[in-house]
């Protein structure tokens, strides 16, 4: 087999993951988090920007066969779509690790969501204020599965800005569900969004105790 990898010796023997990709020996707990949203809201971008390991992506080129079937919003600039999932990892502390799973946005791949939601402690729902309507099915599926979530408004340059209370009303959200602004391209912004989710999950756990 011809291994095309920087982690391969000239003899063709795989040497394993890069040193920076190895799970820290101090890690004592791992949490599964899902990044969800409609097509083109920035899920793959967020996983890629915040992951401390090389993210796994399953993007495929959008073709003529998808016309009339797939969401083609922004297709003049977006040429690929996630067909299975994105995967990344971030260490919150020496002991706690988050495993990140980005869901496919195209509706014909939504049957994969149930498997990705399985075992998830919580979720980030990425939204684009130009297309709030695509978020309703996403939130509904999370509620059906009992997966707590926060809302992250991805900061697209040409997207309209709305007050938090107006967004909460439009999305019919409980007052306790956090709504934050983020830039999925920026590691710090994506990290802060994940930390908001973790604080929210902690508050829910305390309320149940």
From TrEMBL:
Residues forming coiled coils: none
Keyword Cell inner membrane carried by entry: no
Superkingdom to which the source organism belongs: Bacteria
Keywords recorded for this protein, A-Z: ATP-binding, GTP-binding, Hydrolase, Nucleotide-binding
A Pfam family per the record: ATP_bind_1
InterPro entries the record matches: Gliding_Motility_GTPase (IPR052705), Gpn (IPR004130), P-loop_NTPase (IPR027417)
Record-annotated membrane-spanning stretches: none
Gene3D superfamilies: P-loop containing nucleotide triphosphate hydrolases
One Gene Ontology term of the molecular function aspect: hydrolase activity
Entries under SUPFAM superfamilies matching the protein: P-loop containing nucleoside triphosphate hydrolases (SSF52540)
Family note: Belongs to the GPN-loop GTPase family.
Identification of the protein by name: ATP-binding protein
Origin species: Streptomyces silvensis
